[in-house]
Amino acid sequence: MNNESSNKYTNISWDSYSRKTHIIGRTVSIITLILLLGAPFLIGKYLGAYPNLKAVANGFFSVGIVWLISSIAEFLIYTPMLGSGGGYLAFITGNLINMKIPCAMTARDMVDAKIGTPENEIISTISIATSSLVTIIVLAIGVLLSSAIQVYIPPDWIQRRFPEKVLTGQLFAILAGFCLPVCDCASIPVFKSLVKKGVPLPSAVTFMLVSPVINPVVILSTWYAFNGNYRMIAVRCGLGILCAVICGLTYLIRTPGDYLLEEAVPVQSGCGDYSLPTGNENTRAARFSMMIRHAQNEFFAVGKYLLTGIFVSTLFQDLIPSAVLAGSGSAPWKALLLMMGLAFILSLCSSSDAVVARSMAGSLPAGPLIGFLVFGPMMDIKNAAMLLSGFRSKFVVRLAVTAFLVCFIVVALFMLCGSGGIWI
After folding, report:
1. Strand partners, 391
2. How many angstroms from the chain centroid is the CA of residue 415?
3. Which phi and psi angles does 391 have, rounded to 5°?
4. What sign for the dihedral angle of Cα 139, 140, 142, 147?
5. DSSP 19-71
6. Given Cys at both, which of 58, 112, 317, 390 links 192, Cβ 3.0 to 4.6 Å?
7. Residue 203's CB: how many other CB atoms inside 10 A?
8. Which band of pLDDT confidence, cut at 50, 70 and 90, is reported for residue 283?
9. pLDDT bracket for residue 34 (50, 70, 90)
10. Environment class of 350 (CB within 10 Å of its CB; exposed 0-12, middle 13-18, buried 19+)
C-alpha cells in the first residue's frame, strides 16, 4: 500500500511539473517571438526608418519556406531526446548542435538516463539551462579580464616583466594558457588586450591558440568523451601546444606593423575615453567604473561578432552526416582535410567538441579526429568573426591560413607515424 501511495504521489508531482513546464515554456516562447519580431519594427518606428511591410513579408516567407521543413524535422528529432523542458530551453536559446545537444547527451550518459523517462527530462533541462549560460559567462570573464588588464595594468609594467627571450616567452604563454580556464570565446578579448599592452606578438598568438586546447575544462571533457583514453588527451594537448608555438613563431618572420583597428571598440559616443584619471580623480572607484565601461563596450562589440559566427556556422550544420560519410571512405589526408574544414565551419565550443568528435569515431580513424580537436578550438568561423572586431582583415586571414597549414602538416606527419597507436 505504501508503494502504491508513493507511486501515486510521484505521478501527481510529475504531472504538475510537466503542466507547469509547458505553461512557462509556451509563455516564454511567445514573449521571445514577440520581442524578436517587434524589436526591429519598434526601432525603425523610433528612428523614422519604418520598413516596407510588403518587402519584409516577401523576404520572411522566402526564407521561412526554405527552413520550414528543416525546423519541423529538428523539432520532431530533438524534442523526444531533450524532453519538454530541455526542448523549450534549447529552441529558445538556439545553438543546438554546437552546444545544447552535446551537453544533454553527456549529462544523460553520466547518470545513465533513458530517453522518454522523467530522469532524462530533468537532467536534460538542467544541462541545457547550464549550457545556455556558459557562452555569456565565459565571454564576460574574458572581457572583464581584458578590461582589468587594460585599465589597471600600465603598459610598461607588462613590457618590463614579460620574458624578453623568445623561448621563455613561449613557455610563459603556454603556462598562462593552461592556468586560465577559458575557451576560445574568452581568449580572443584577452589576446587583444595583451597585444595593446605591448606583449610580443608571437607570445600573444601562442597564448590565444593554445589556451582553448590545453585548459583544464577541455582536458576533462576530452577525458570523459573518450572514456579516460589518456593517449588521446596527451596527443590533443601535445599537438595543440606544438601547433600553437609554431604559429606564434611564424610572426618572428615579417612581423606585421599595422594590424590593430584604431576604433576596435567604439567609446566616443557618449562614453568618453579610457585614459586613466589624474590627480584626485584617480581613485579605485574611478578605475573600477572605467573597467566596467570598457567591459560593457567590448562585450557588445565582440558579442555581435560571436553571434554572427554562430549564425553562419549553424547554416552549415546539415553538412555533418554527409561530410562524415564522405570522409569515412576517403584517403587519410582527405579525411583529415575534411574534418579540419568541418571544425572551422561548425565552430564548436572547445569544452564540448570532444563529445561530437567521439560520436564520429565509428566512421573515422584517430588522425582526422585529432585534426578536428586540435584545429577547431584555434580557428573557426566564430573566432575569425571575433578577431575581425579588433584586427585588420589581412592579419586575420594570415593567422587563419597559418593555423590551418601548420595543424594539417603536423597532424598529417603524426598520422604517417602511426597516430601514436591510438585506437578509438
Report:
1. 260
2. 27
3. -130, 155
4. positive
5. HHHHHHHHHHHHHHHHHHHHHHHHHHHHHT----HHHHHHHHHHHHHHHHHHH
6. 390
7. 26
8. low
9. confident
10. buried
